[in-house]
Write a structure and sequence with these properties.
With 74 residues, the chain is of the alpha+beta class. It contains two helices and three strands. It has one domain.
Length: 74
């Protein structure tokens, strides 16, 4: 199974979050949803988890350091 990444640096946030989560798809979705709820105040819903699934990137897309943030899809 391919490893994927959820990278908070990718999106604008008030906390300027720098967390990156890498692992198997289901693990990353679970961890990212829990992080989004506990740190960013989102409600952990099936819709949020689906949105996270759609935003996952391949592990190979990781680059160290700063990343130019984009607006969170709404």
């Amino acid at each position: 199974m391919d490893r994927v990444m959820a990278d908070c640096r990718r999106f604008e946030s008030e906390s300027d979050c720098s967390l990156t989560i890498v692992g198997e798809r289901d693990e990353v979705v679970t961890a990212a949803a829990e992080h989004a709820a506990s740190v960013h105040g989102h409600e952990d819903t099936p819709e949020l988890r689906e949105q996270i699934r759609e935003m996952l990137e391949p592990e190979s897309a990781y680059v160290p350091g700063a990343r130019q943030p984009e607006a969170f899809p709404g």
